[in-house]
Design a protein that fits this description.
It holds the Pfam family SpoVR. By secondary structure, the protein is of the alpha/beta class. It is built from 31 helices and 13 strands. The chain is globular. The N terminus and C terminus are likely disordered.
């Protein structure tokens, strides 16, 4: 533990000393549970320093910009008026750095520490984070500090107008989500937009005579063909990384001459640095629900199930966790934790069902009638020596077979030889292994999950039977359940943690069973009544709506379609329309920023919904929603004003997303 190096306050030093043991033991417990986190450096900060860190996105130093102050002021007011308290912040780095507020109670500090250990594990092992650093060492704090120093030098440079730097940073940060977050930062950006082969090269290979070539393939026709094919190639392969495209080909608008000029070296430098930062933060945005749910799950396991929260701390912890999970709106902690619990339960149920289907007389057809679920529940309970560990029960643990993989025999020997060497009363997990802890916390025996095995569907049982190639059979239910792998659920969670992001996570595991058991539903704003109403409880509708919320960080997807639109050097951007309109006022503001980075007129293709007043009135009377007319538009900005044009049908078809046109949407999606 350490305090902030620049301020060795007595309160912070005392808090750091108090947290030495919880930090050490939480890290040890996390590893016993199978987590593999980055090393974590914990810093104790005061209330104001915590707000500064939140404003800077979890780092102590960032480039100069007005938005940090705006974020700081908003966070300070939230605290002041009781709208939310920050307990911790942790960043993706090796080692990770976590900041604890010195005014937190010990119960809150322990919850933060266990939460942080799980975040550090997710940072280290989820492949979407490795796409930024690759196989190299990650030192994000140093990188962001270098970026801050570089931009600060430009701000202070007497030959560069400070306002020019600030305006340029504004323009770039306005586009920080227009990157291709699905590709590594170092990916080849040119390969996706290679130009088609020029027909002249093919004609040369055919060795036609000049007379034939001139008569059939004149130069004007070949030029027009090459331009048309190049334009079509651009339109067919839109460039998702808008910032990368502008870095390669962008110019800037010179207000004095009214023309596009090459970027100054400082502008290219700033654009490259800020694009790199956008790629660094992208995985955190892409995995927000997974990551927060993962941390909430393991925090709950450690603090509650493994009693890391002391008896006098548990009620405080439970109250605060209930507030976090009960926060209104789309809550990533709650949704993520529930999905991880579903992954665990589903894997454990599959493991148990596979064993039971190998019992003589049990088939997928008679499973629900032949299985005594109460008896199965009892047989799945952890061994008493594993479940009830206290100093006076260690001999029961020692009586298990000496090769039992559930027991940490070395630690148990020390505890039996010297009771003061291992505090089994406070930390019973020390004498168990990963396998022992998995049995101790097997999800299907927990009260809240006791009906989960019974709810297995016949279709799932039939599928399990079809793909069971192992012909081993059991003579009794007891024999079958004795071989259940209690680690199945956790093992599956670790597999999923490695490869998924929020979109793929929801797509894979937001099942009808999950939606129904957790009472999820969709709602929408109704134009006929002017209020919000429940729209659907159908699992497919819920899934589609959530997927739209998480695609591209929940932001509109914009791509570069053409950098020489209509052969006039204009930039053509396209909005990947999925049934949700852009906020056109915001879109125009963004076009102004893009114009500063392109230097020439910029165009944006999108689709607008229009409602006929008569249709709206009829729909209101009949208590239904009016059907909109979708109109393709192209908005053009030339540095002085905006023009709007009807979009060619072919272009409208190109920007419409496939198979996604979902119309139940929350208020923030409405333009």
């Amino acid at each position: 533990m350490t305090t902030r190096p620049r301020r060795f306050r007595r309160a912070a030093r005392e808090e750091a000393d108090r947290l030495e043991e919880p930090v050490r033991e939480a890290a040890a417990l996390a590893r016993k549970l199978g987590l593999d986190p980055y090393p974590v450096n914990y810093w104790v900060v005061d209330h104001d320093e915590m707000n500064q860190l939140i404003a800077y996105g979890g780092f102590q130093t960032r480039y100069p910009h007005w938005r940090w102050g705006m974020t700081y002021d908003r966070q300070r007011k939230q605290d002041q008026f009781g709208m939310g308290k920050a307990f911790e912040i942790v960043n993706n780095d090796d080692p990770s750095h976590a900041f604890l507020q010195e005014s937190n109670s010990l119960a809150d500090q322990k919850a933060v520490i266990t939460h942080v250990e799980a975040h550090a594990d997710f940072f280290r092992n989820n492949e979407w984070f490795s796409r930024f650093s690759g196989d190299g060492d990650l030192d994000a704090a140093a990188m962001l500090e270098r970026h801050a120093e570089t931009i600060q030098r430009y701000v202070e440079d007497s030959e560069i107008d400070r306002e020019d730097v600030e305006r340029f940073v504004d323009a770039v940060t306005c586009l920080e989500d227009t990157i291709d977050q699905h590709r590594p930062l170092t990916a080849d950006r040119d390969g996706e937009r290679s130009r088609p082969e020029d027909l002249r090269e093919r004609l040369d290979e055919m060795d036609f005579s000049p007379a034939v070539s001139g008569a059939v393939f004149d130069d004007e026709w070949l030029d027009e063909l090459a331009e048309a094919e190049a334009a079509a190639a651009d339109l067919d392969r839109p460039r998702a990384d808008v910032l990368g495209f502008l870095l390669e080909r962008g110019t800037v608008y010179d207000e004095e001459t009214g023309e596009a000029v090459e970027m100054e070296p400082w502008q290219t430098d700033v654009l490259e640095l800020l694009r790199r930062e956008a790629y660094y933060f992208a995985p955190q945005k892409m995995t927000k629900t997974m990551n927060e749910g993962w941390a909430a799950y393991w925090e709950s396991q450690m603090m509650g199930e493994e009693r890391f929260a002391g008896t006098d701390e548990f009620l405080t912890y439970a109250d605060h966790q209930a507030r976090v999970l009960g926060s209104p709106g789309l809550n990533p902690y709650k949704l993520g934790k529930e999905l991880w619990e579903y992954v665990e339960n589903a894997a454990n149920r599959r493991e148990v069902a596979e064993r039971l289907l190998r019992v003589e007389g049990i088939t997928w057809r008679n499973f629900h009638d032949a299985v005594d679920f109460e008896a199965v529940q009892s047989l799945l309970e952890p061994h008493p020596a594993i479940d009830r560990i206290r100093p006076d029960t260690l001999e029961d643990l020692a009586a298990l077979p000496e090769d039992d993989p559930r027991v940490d025999w070395e630690t148990l020997d020390r505890a039996l030889s010297d009771p003061d060497a291992v505090d089994v009363e406070r930390y019973p997990w020390k004498v168990l292994t990963y396998e022992g802890l998995a049995e101790r916390h097997f999800s299907l025996v927990k009260p809240q999950n006791r009906g989960f095995l019974r709810r297995v569907r016949r279709s799932e049982l039939e599928e399990l039977s079809r793909y069971m190639f192992d012909d081993a059979r059991y003579g009794s239910v007891e024999a079958a359940l004795a071989e259940v792998e209690k680690t199945a659920g956790w093992n599956r969670m670790y597999e999923v943690r490695e490869s998924h992001n929020d979109v793929t996570f929801l797509d894979a595991f937001l099942s009808p069973e999950f939606v129904e058991s957790n009472d999820y539903f969709t709602y929408e704003y109704t134009r006929s009544t002017g209020d919000f109403r429940v729209a659907s409880t159908d699992p497919d509708d819920v899934k589609k709506k959530l997927l739209l919320q998480f695609t591209n960080f929940g932001k509109p997807t914009i791509a570069v379609f053409d950098d020489n639109f209509r052969n006039r050097g204009e930039l053509l951007l396209g909005h990947r329309y999925n049934g949700i309109m852009l906020d056109l006022d915001e879109a125009r503001d963004v076009l102004e920023r893009v114009h500063e980075l392109w230097g020439r007129p910029v165009n944006l293709m999108t689709i607008r919904k229009e409602y006929d007043d008569h249709d709206v009135e009829i729909a209101r009377r009949r208590n239904r929603e009016p059907e909109p007319t979708e109109v393709g538009v192209r908005i053009r900005y030339d540095g002085e004003g905006f023009d709007e044009f009807e979009l060619d049908p072919d272009l409208q078809e190109r920007i419409a997303a496939d198979d996604i046109d979902y119309d139940t949407k929350p208020d923030e999606w409405l333009s």
